[in-house]
């Protein structure tokens, strides 16, 4: 132990077995070089297809190299909360502002949103130091009504959580766990009934599509909706629902102060671009600076409830550490999910990014900011540059509310959320979240790091947050299209890890960023590998070394090595074999559809031909879909160009394989000798057919609503068959 480390509020350890890992990495790299060498030295094969495969192999090689940088130096963090409490009394701990973002009550149900809000109100932390802000980009009176209800329910829920040390503090999630943990705490029935009644009222309003007249007329707060004309056209609506200075409405049933609770719908006008979530976050940063101005900001999406009531104390161990705390701009938690199934059909768990890659980025001092479950230092988020001499005085807080009464405070704060406020300012450029990128979070994190700040990844045993993972294939593909498109934008933005801020960001971390940034471009090599080898197999032309040639070894080593390695990595983090297979399939599907479309859209955007919006991910599903999700049956159910590509590729490979098998049977022993040169092509084609099984089922075998529509069956069969026939003519 180094001197001084004893007093540190957190500890950093290195992963075990890193040496073996590195040796393996190097051996893989050598094999990859041999593959490149094979292509360079064998010009006899058909020229163009081999050139394309070579290009693909070069690209795969680089992309593998980027992924290695995220595995080179994994680190893990541990906090010492008792040391924190020994050093700081509760009353001298800093305040925390918590931002929850929602944008559409139809696909982000208000009841889910307030569960998230309630969960973060219940941190094991002095309530008067917590302020929760809900940003509603839909300015929905139903969401507001739900929050109003939540502010009343909180008066029972918070004392209940405190008294019985309830975990998780989201009421819905807690009541769901109850059948496992007996005996029930006292008062449970009462609180549960209050919750259920509230839930019915909120869901009734949601079903009705508006808040009932009686409720509206009984509460003057709804009058702010009088001037509302549409989601995209309304004034700022800002309401402080709970505040310690409000004499009539600030305490729970036990007489203790409640956290501050604020509803904000920033102004929207059709002629002003609202910049999606980044715009909402920036309005929140400003408004909160006027109301509570905490130095630490937590940001969660509306579906990510807090699953660990200690999180605030945990992250303060980083920010308040004497030695290293002042360098840290944000502490990122992993994004975990509550609704995963056993084998994770859609690879939702994102084991590898959460359990490996972000730890690897942390090793270089810079996990990415992934938009949710992240604690920020307000100064860094607001654009302040890192300065090694700068120390925060955690105890010195300005309480705006004391200066003015709440109504005045509301009015003053409203002005900060106006559309025109940001005109001619650095907001969205150098202050707050950066605009113009579909992954506003990642580019913001990168820009913060390029100002000299570090970040920390904290992934404790008890998960900090749990959210709702998408449950249909289309949702995931669309989500990943947005992500990969955004990442691609970063590569060519002012903050590109290729060239921006030399000297500030380490090479390893740059490569790590490039691993994510280059998702969209990986679509091209994946497509090459899914089409060319099978196409030439169909025509009996070999593109890879013979099985008896020495050149076969590097191919075999890379394929087997990478498969076994990724399987072991997956199993170590609690996945199943089936789950690994599913994850591999999703990599392929994302690669050939989401990433491809993201790539194409980026090119269109470059020529000014299109501009992709932020498509919000649905957080609800109907009964039918939900049942199939539970059974891990792939959900198609819609017609989408993304599916057309997937189905066409699947069928195309099936036709190629069938035709080859037929030839093998007809030719007998001679045939086997011919095909000896094509073992890799047959294996690759066979692998593609095997992994595409859910698509064949969706096309031909299933009868339920989640199957692929018949129009798509016709379209993709025609396309795949034509590709086979045309190739027979031209090759
Ligand atoms: O105009 C908008 C659009 C979205 N949101 C909110 O942003 C959050 C994330 O949206 P979601 O549709 O759930 O996207 P995901 O793909 O799940 O989001 C991940 O990726 C995004 C970047 O693409 C990040 O912003 C998110 O924090 C991160 O969880 C949600 O709470 C939305 O309500 C807004 O507030 N305003
Ligand atoms: Mn989400």
Task: Characterise this structure.
- Helix 4 (110-121) links the parallel strand 3 (96-102) and strand 4 (130-136).
- The strands form three sheets. Strands 5-6-4-3-7-11-9-12 form an eight-stranded mixed β-sheet, sandwiched between helices. A three-stranded mixed β-sheet has the order 8-13-10. It has a two-stranded antiparallel sheet with strand order 1-2.
- It is globular, with a radius of gyration of 28 Å.
- The N and C termini lie far apart (67 Å).
- Helix 5 packs antiparallel against helix 7, helix 22 (641-667) crosses helix 23 (669-675) and helix 22 crosses helix 24 (679-691).
- The protein has 26 helices and 13 strands.
- With 731 residues, it is of the alpha/beta class.
- It has helices at residues 18-41, 47-69, 81-87, 110-121, 141-164, 171-177, 188-208, 213-218, 276-291, 311-319, 351-363, 378-381, 400-403, 406-415, 440-450, 473-491, 507-517, 519-538, 552-572, 577-606, 623-630, 641-667, 669-675, 679-691, 693-701, 710-730; strands spanning 10-14, 75-79, 96-102, 130-136, 237-242, 260-265, 296-301, 305-306, 328-332, 336-337, 374-377, 454-457, 465-467.
- It has a domain at 79-470: Spore Coat Polysaccharide Biosynthesis Protein SpsA, Chain A (Alpha-Beta Complex), CATH 3.90.550.10.
- The model is unreliable at 1-5 (pLDDT under 50).
- Uridine-5'-diphosphate-glucose binds at residues 101-103, 108, 135, 137, 276-277, 280, 301-302, 371-372, 438-439, 441, 479, 482-483, 486, 614, 616-617.
- The site of manganese (II) ion has 3 residues, from loops.
